[in-house]
Design goal:
Largest sheet: 5 strands, antiparallel
Number of strands: 33
Oligomer: single chain
Radius of gyration: 22 Å
Strand content: over 45%
Number of helices: 1
Distance between the termini: 74 Å
Shape: globular
């Protein structure tokens, strides 16, 4: 026991940020809960902690017959039962204002429920998916209140959205038919929805897809994965940031491959990706990446790591890996093998990195106390100061543009809040195909003519110097 409790009092560590004048502080390890040995975290591409602040937050975990929500308020944790059932797997959570959503797999269904009173009472449990061979639920609340779900069913990746009490009538399939889609991850910013997953057969690769209308329609599936450089890439996790100083939208993919953690970055909402960069310690074996970011330039990635030569099934050799950048995840700006480990002698499994607000994040993980035969749920605060960029809340990408009239039949005017120059407007149809492009635009307004475009839903994207200024939907009618 001495080794375990020594780990709880490791002093806070202040680390100089890479390529920035900011600082990242990693606090001491704290005990969230002490559980029976069958307690689990969902280890794949999910969110496990959320909240309003470091003093008002929540963490989810489960065993085979119960989903638990631990609530932190007034300086202490209180455990509540979310749901009691059978064959429960992969409980995950999201948070919108005062509503906590929990999603999990039980038998042949993906299920979900929510609470508006911090876990005192719960909604009726709803089936998110049809019955089938389902797995790997991921849930995310957009900042407009829409709740997005992804999961796999019979090797296909699906998406649905909960909006004002109802789901879409049919779930949308995202992955390649006939392939082996697994481990999806989803995030949303306003009406923009971003999804990623791994796909087999071996060697597995990472795929990505986007929607700009709350998931009702999706861009055309790419003919290739995000990278074909690696012999193996799997279990992707996704994050998004907006740099208001440069009007740049960053999308980040973190995944593991060949026992290393890789990062890819996009500045055009996933139309193109940087080459994969190794961000983990290559002197160790790593898997299960979790990524979070803010709108100030900070990107953090946690993962499970173990010594070379150790068994994948020996949890006693595992520890919490963590790396970060304070310069928008640019190549060469990640810390290497940051000191964030448990060092408790019992080993660590399934670490996750969780965003609470723009300046506060938490590492969370499990470790098995082999002396008392218990599972410890542990956490460690990662806090930021003086990071780069301008403080900005996550925002709907549509708020900086006005379109009038919309719908329109002959022409419409696009109005942007700021002047732009040497810009390009590209219009896509509902299949993600570019159907019209106007170059060398400048000013703050654009008169857009329908010309020969048929009636339908379109998406307009304005770019300047490779950065996206706006994305919005156009409706053409007769």
């Amino acid at each position: 026991m001495k080794k375990l409790f020594f780990s709880f009092f490791i002093p806070a560590i202040l680390l100089s940020a890479v390529a920035s004048s900011g600082q990242v502080a990693i606090d001491k390890i704290s005990l969230v809960s002490y559980e029976n040995t069958n307690a689990n975290f969902c280890f794949n591409n999910t969110k496990l902690m959320a909240g309003n602040s470091i003093n008002d937050r929540y963490i989810v975990y489960y065993n085979s017959d119960t989903v638990f929500l631990n609530v932190f308020q007034s300086g202490s944790w209180t455990k509540k039962t979310v749901y009691a059932g059978n064959k429960i797997v992969s409980a995950t959570m999201t948070f919108y204002k005062d509503t906590i959503w929990i999603c999990w797999k039980e038998g042949i269904y993906i299920k979900a429920g929510y609470t508006n009173d911090k876990g005192k009472t719960w909604s009726k449990v709803m089936n998110v998916s049809p019955a089938g061979n389902v797995a790997s639920p991921s849930v995310y609340a957009s900042n407009n209140g829409k709740i997005h779900f992804t999961w796999s069913r019979d090797t296909i990746i699906y998406h649905n959205v909960y909006n004002n009490g109802t789901f879409l009538p049919e779930s949308r399939s995202l992955s390649n038919l006939g392939a082996q889609g697994q481990m999806p991850s989803v995030i949303a910013i306003g009406d923009t929805v971003l999804a990623t997953w791994r796909e087999g057969p071996l060697p597995t690769k990472v795929w990505f897809r986007s929607s700009f209308d709350r998931g009702q329609s999706w861009n055309k599936l790419s003919s290739a994965p995000t990278t074909d450089i690696l012999a193996l890439s799997k279990d992707p996790n996704i994050a998004y940031s907006y740099d208001s100083a440069t009007s740049t939208h960053y999308v980040y993919l973190a995944f593991d491959g060949q026992n290393k953690i890789y990062l890819q970055r996009s500045t055009d909402l996933g139309n193109s990706w940087s080459a994969p960069e190794i961000v983990s310690n290559t002197g160790k074996l790593s898997q299960f990446a979790h990524i979070e970011s803010n709108n100030k330039g900070f990107v953090g990635i946690s993962y499970e790591q173990r010594p070379i030569g150790s068994s994948l099934y020996d949890d006693t050799k595992k520890d919490v890996g963590f790396t970060y950048s304070t310069n928008w995840g640019k190549k060469g700006t990640f810390s290497m093998d940051t000191l964030a480990y448990t060092n408790n002698g019992f080993g660590s499994a399934y670490p996750a990195f969780n965003k609470i607000d723009e300046n506060n994040f938490y590492l969370a993980w499990l470790t098995k106390d082999t002396i008392s035969n218990k599972i410890n749920v542990l956490e460690r605060l990662v806090s930021l100061s003086n990071t780069t960029g301008i403080d900005a809340d996550e925002q709907d990408m549509r708020q900086s543009i006005g379109i009038f009239p919309n719908p329109f039949s002959m022409q419409t005017i696009l109005q942007v809040n700021k002047n732009f120059g040497n810009s390009t407007l590209t219009v896509y149809n509902s299949y993600g195909q570019a159907v019209k492009q106007i170059e060398n635009l400048s000013g703050s307004t654009i008169t857009f003519y329908r010309d020969n475009l048929p009636v339908g839903v379109y998406f307009a994207r304005l770019t300047q110097n490779g950065n996206i200024i706006m994305v919005d939907k156009l409706l053409i009618i007769d």
